Amino acid sequence: xxxxxxxxxxxxxxxxxxxxxxxxxxxxxxxxxxxxxxxxxxxxxxxxxxxxxxxxxxxxxxxxxxxxxxxxxxxxxxxxxxxxxxxxxxxxxxxxxxxxxxxxxxxxxxxxxxxxxxxxxxxxxxxxxxxxxxxxxxxxxxxxxxxxxxxxxxxxxxxxxxxxxxxxxxxxxxxxxxxxxxxxxxxxxxxxxxxxxxxxxxxxxxxxxxxxxxxxxxxxxxxxxxxxxxxxxxxxxxxxxxxxxxxxxxxxxxxxxxxxxxxxxxxxxxxxxxxxxxxxxxxxxxxxxxxxxxxxxxxxxxxxxxxxxxxxxxxxxxxxxx
Length: 322
Prior knowledge:
The protein is of the alpha/beta class and 322 residues long. It has helices at residues 2-15, 18-24, 41-57, 72-79, 93-102, 110-113, 138-147, 162-174, 186-194, 205-213, 261-276, 278-286, 296-317, and strands spanning 30-34, 61-65, 87-92, 114-130, 153-156, 179-182, 200-204, 217-222, 248-256, 290-291. It is globular. The chain starts with a helix and ends in a 5-residue tail after the last helix.
């Protein structure tokens, strides 16, 4: 009994200093790491969130763009930061749910080294083809791919990203052979699609919208459960009989795992209130993103389910990054 009391007292003493810190939080600038270059969709969405969160939480939030390794470099910096709430990050699904199965060596584990605060946004993936490709529907595309195995090439934003895995899932479901051409981001992949060097790709709505509206590309389907608000006439993969091909490029707010619960609660409350604000939802919708703002419990459950789901796809395809 004496030992137990000593342990409990010691635990209380060790925990005590964090209580005033939580009550005073924030008393200095919060750093929000975006693991991609400035100006891209994830950067724009993060700035919209940070602006509203800062006003709600009564502090200053600055964006730090730290790209590399498909998002891993920046989020690894979050995982290794001081767990005081002053370093947080916006992570893509590739970093939280795909890389853990795809990579032999991870600089962190999403469920062991990060506090998952809330899902920030969900961005529908759109399957598009170049205007020169004579297909009008997904059935047309599948028929062509089966008639000419290995002849069609799809672009992606890089190996292991959601646009890549979405197409691998389509290939598995339709049992077709389409060659992968990985790029170092959305812009070069889109340029080569428009130039006819690749024939199709999955990509985020904001990346493709301008080209679709200009008639330079054709959208065949969206990978989300519901139709995209910005592309209301484009059917979902589920509507076309391919319910398994579900792919949203989602983003989540994270912090170091040992961040005090009281501080995580403050960050969560500010983020969710921001994401539920009409002006924030409207600004994100203009970027092709759907604001979410889930509970931490729901977000963790979602990440676990996505790790399992994409892990099966990766195992079936034999993909690996060493």
